[in-house]
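Note to self: the last two entries modelled the partners one at a time, which told us nothing about the interface. This time every component goes in together.
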Amino acid sequence: DTEVTQTPKHLVMGMTNKKSLKCEQHMGHRAMYWYKQKAKKPPELMFVYSYEKLSINESVPSRFSPECPNSSLLNLHLHALQPEDSALYLCASSHGGGGTDTQYFGPGTRLTVL
Amino acid sequence: GENVEQHPSTLSVQEGDSAVIKCTYSDSASNYFPWYKQELGKRPQLIIDIRSNVGEKKDQRIAVTLNKTAKHFSLHITETQPEDSAVYFCAASRRNTGNQFYFGTGTSLTVIP
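The predicted structure of the combined assembly is written out below.
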């Protein structure tokens, strides 16, 4: 399996809801990433997990909470989001977290916050 | 930290012509430079990459060149086709930064049939 998968594809939520985004890879990669992407802008890094430990948190608001249950799975828990959080949320994985490894992206979850 | 600039932001070419997108970076320690293509509503997909020990790399109609002295790298697409229309992002990274990619701002390429 050479793909990163993400569920759901689309998510609409109100500002008081709690929801989770899921990401999975079976390539044996040991680094996984969450990115936020607005239309026609580059992906913005949110979190990096390396060997199941959070290694980078790019000053993301606490209403986003990442979780890495095992080396193949990555979750992003969402709570009390704002309309400006509406975006495409991309997961990526790479062989390791030491630098200069190719990152492979999932198809993304299109999030709309009402 | 690293700063990657990408030009042009939009590019229109006639089918069959060549397209060139340029990126400059600021951190001389950066040593890995991938290029991603993102079609509308789809994931970014790696199309080619280059490491700092190589000056040029080619894959069919796509090539990337790297000038370490000037700290710039370029994507060259020859014989463009309508399916090449997409947003292209360059990126730079180096060791010991948690594999953090620094992305350029993107180039929206339109190939006119």
